[in-house]
Design a protein that fits this description.
372 residues, mainly beta, Porin, 14-stranded antiparallel beta sheet, two-stranded antiparallel ribbon, 20 strands, 48% strand
Amino acid sequence: MFGYPVRARIGRQELAFGNEWLVGSGGTAAGLSKQSFDAIRLTYATDQFSVDAWWSKLAENSPLEQDGDVDFYGVYGSYKGIENITLDAYWLLARDARRLNDTNFAWFPEWVEDVAGIDNYDVTNLHTIGLRGAGTYGAFDFNAEIAYQFGDAGQYGILAKPFTYGDDGASFDGNWGFNGEVGYTFDMSYSPRVYLGLAYLGGEDNRSISFWNWLNPFDRPQASVSFNRLFSSWEYSEFLENTDLSNALIFRGGVKVKPTEATEALLAVSYFQTDAQFAAPRHFNVGRFRVPIAPALSFWDSSNSSDLGLEVELIGTYHYSEDLSFQAGWAHLFVGDGLADGNYNMFNGILFVGGSGSDDADYLFFETSVTF
């Protein structure tokens, strides 16, 4: 634009930054879904660095609400002045202004609730700031990204309501996320690459209550807010998520080989743990079923195991051409006690995973990919 290295894109488009850990185009999940954004995006790019700024509209509720939309903003900068290395810094904001109230049918009017300081959920503002470094050094390659989240979490808080009111003070403050991987490619036949990876997706589980909280009929529970992966393209597991796993610690490793220029095979191993365990009611087992000892005494609980399990996956890929590829794979999940008991890990830590048995699981797939 105007003789400067500036580009503007207005309309429906993909947004993909870094290695797409938090903002990507999708397509890696088992659902084979891609994602796009209705956005205004400005890019300033030179050989040394680039800066992107955008505003996208995720949901439009006008004229039903004066301020009831969902928007996604961001600024993403990359520095490429170091040979074979990229350094990124970014700020992201997901703003959900849809109206939240949980006493619409109460006998007292809404203004009474406002004066009393109840049912006042703030607009959800999820801020994410992060740093990333990636590149190659000789035969080594690396990628490391760390992010911190803060802001009001009304959309989470309203969910924490066993009776009338939820947690109108819920926030994202203190949520950390990390994703890292280092690999080494051997200069020999099949070009084997071995890698090790670590991911931390911070979580909390405030569902357990004390005896005194149990006695207090006016006690308002705290929401359990975990690290939110926004619009990630990363899928760590074929079983435990759909690019939305959180409240977890993940250890990864594997080896990839290329028997020919058109074929490659990957053997990957991943171990999963829960960051904050769910405190389940005391129970005893009857076969595959769990029977609570005293369901009414919800304060009488014990934490489930943090061990979610070990996953082994074997994938083969054949690139018929630049536009057409075929992929087949098999994955096996060795179920851990924490998955057999159950913990909150899916949908960014909101949905319960497991709790139905300890049998292992297998997943077989075949995919064809055409790009154009």
